[in-house]
């Protein structure tokens, strides 16, 4: 399993960050420009990654103010889990961690791990930009 992580520290409380992340409609704001055909509800989202694949995800687990997990709702090119964790940073702010776990063979790992890391970094950075 390939695990890719990116972390952002925000100055807003955990509850606010979790509330934003818990609604998949908000995730469109976190996506890079190579994501298009976005369609979402609070619990599901589908989109196309330019030059890669169409992906449909659904929330599989919610732990209020701690964790949100999304998995493919349709057959994906590889097994993947998208997880956000949020924790208090001890100063009233939040440490948000985006963790992408993907079951990649050696060839897919060489091709996809760079773009997946870029995606995780972009989303963490956009979250900090939007929520502060």
Automatic annotation (TrEMBL):
SUPFAM superfamilies: Bet v1-like. It comes from the Bacteria. InterPro entries: START-like_dom_sf (IPR023393). This is SRPBCC family protein.
């Amino acid at each position: 399993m390939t695990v890719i992580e990116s972390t952002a520290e925000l100055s807003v409380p955990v509850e606010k960050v979790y509330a934003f992340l818990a609604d998949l409609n908000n995730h469109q704001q976190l996506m890079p420009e190579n994501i298009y055909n976005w369609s979402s509800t609070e619990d599901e989202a589908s989109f196309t990654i330019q030059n890669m694949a169409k992906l449909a995800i659904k929330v599989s687990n919610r732990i209020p103010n701690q964790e949100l997990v999304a998995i493919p709702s349709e057959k994906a090119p590889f097994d993947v889990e998208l997880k956000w964790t949020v924790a208090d940073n001890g100063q009233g702010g939040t440490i948000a961690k985006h963790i992408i776990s993907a079951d990649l063979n050696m060839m897919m790992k060489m091709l996809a791990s760079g773009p997946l890391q870029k995606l995780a970094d972009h989303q963490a950075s956009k979250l900090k930009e939007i929520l502060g």
